[in-house]
Design brief:
Layout (H helix, E strand, L loop, with lengths): L10 H18 L6 E2 L5 E4 L9 E7 L22 E7 L1 E8 L3 H6 L4 H25 L24 E3 L22 H13 L15 E3 L2 E8 L1 H8 L7 H6 L5 H5 L8 E3 L2 E5 L8 E2 L2 E2 L8 E7 L4 E5 L10 E7 L4 E14 L1 E2 L2 E2 L2 E7 L4
Parallel strand pairs: 1-2, 2-14, 6-19, 8-10
Antiparallel strand pairs: 3-4, 5-16, 7-8, 8-13, 9-10, 11-12, 13-19, 14-16, 15-16, 17-18
Helix pairs in contact: 1-3
């Protein structure tokens, strides 16, 4: 009886497994539900998906500020020059692989090493994309290895886009944070962040910055804020009037709002800010008495509030949806060992124009381990 089979290294098998890997990886990420068009927290840029190049340039046109000419006043000679800025996202290839010990290793276990290799590379890909996003939007400059920062170097938050919990001025820095209750994250700090985000560039405040544009959800404007679990714990245990209970009272039901992906897994909502918890929220880089280094015990964290286009993600050719990449299988040692490699060409970066963060606002706070 004749049968049709597709084995290791078959061209169709490779293509199917490559797509399956990245579909599953994207579902497993935190960031997947925040990727979309210019109304999303992470804007997907497809410019390089069908053309050569390793860098996408993103432009920003500032609002015109001239007063204009009334009546029959002369307009000629009083024109206003457009002011534009740009940022760019670099893409690069990132790969990883696994390799079996041999056919006897497969014989000894009741599972498929090939299938487990797929699962392992899926989890690795999802882990890497999530690390990219949080290292970028938190401005975690302590991580200098671009394999963990979206193939782009991290940029520290500018002074106007970083505030500290319990502080009274934007000028307060992370080095002023201390182990006190006033340095805990509270709803007052979220209120302050929202007010600042809406006030950028208004009446000369925070010169050069533009108001953070919210994400539109069911016709309503929302910001998205990411908290570390340690920060959430202190919010949750705050017994002051009008704190955690107000988050829980926020309406998250009905119509397009409840079905929108930015609400999936959310802690709740407060003052138009959808709150999410992730252990990937980074520590502060500096703090009272020192500078954070990788592997050190952290007690201060950078919650980050994001609006639309907080970051951009770009994919290389044939990866416009982020659902495909490379999948390679090779046999070694006369066919005894199976090697599996997967990779993708992509880049992710926090958007910054004229040396100012565009749609992120970091709120640093004291948040010790429980």
């Amino acid at each position: 009886m004749a049968t049709t089979a597709y084995g290791v290294n078959d061209a169709l098998t490779v293509k199917v497994w490559a797509k399956k890997l990245f579909v599953e990886a994207l579902k497993a990420t935190w960031v997947g539900k925040f990727i979309g068009d210019s109304n999303a927290v992470i804007e997907r840029k497809d410019d390089l998906s069908q053309s050569a190049g390793d860098r996408i340039t993103v432009g920003l046109r500032m609002q015109m500020t001239g007063a204009g000419i009334q009546g029959d006043g002369t307009l000629e000679g009083n024109e206003e020059a457009l002011v534009t800025y740009s940022d760019n996202v670099l893409i690069n290839q990132l790969r990883h692989a696994t390799r079996s010990q041999g056919k006897m290793a497969q014989q000894r276990v009741p599972f498929s090493i090939r299938n487990e290799g797929m699962a392992g590379l899926r989890d690795w890909t999802a882990d890497r994309w999530d690390a990219w996003f949080f290292n970028q939007v938190c401005g975690f400059t302590a991580q200098s290895d671009t394999r963990f920062t979206g193939n782009n170097s991290t940029i520290a938050p500018d002074s106007a886009h970083l505030i500290v919990a319990g502080g009274t001025t934007v000028a307060a820095t992370e080095t002023s944070l201390s182990a006190t209750t006033t340095a805990y994250l509270s709803l007052t700090d979220i209120d302050r962040a929202v007010t600042i985000a809406k006030s950028f560039g208004r009446y000369g405040d925070y010169t050069g910055s533009v108001p953070m544009r919210p994400v539109m959800v069911g016709g309503e404007e929302k910001y998205v804020m990411f908290l570390h679990p340690y920060q959430t714990r202190l919010l949750r245990t705050n017994t002051s009037t009008g704190q955690w209970l107000d988050i829980q009272k926020a309406a998250m039901t009905g119509g397009q709002v409840s079905n929108n992906p930015i609400y999936t897994g959310a802690l709740g909502e407060y003052n138009g800010v959808v709150l999410h918890e992730s252990a990937r929220v980074t520590p502060t880089v500096t703090y009272a008495g020192g500078t954070y280094s990788l592997g050190a015990q952290a007690t201060y964290y950078r919650a980050v509030m994001c609006g639309a286009q907080a970051a951009s993600i770009a994919f290389g050719q044939d990866q416009a949806t982020g659902l495909s990449g490379s999948w390679t299988e090779e046999l070694f040692d006369y066919g005894n060992q199976l090697g599996i490699a997967a990779g993708f060409v992509a880049g992710l970066k926090k958007m910054q124009f004229n040396s100012l963060d565009f749609s992120t606002l970091v709120v640093a706070s004291y948040a010790p381990a429980p």
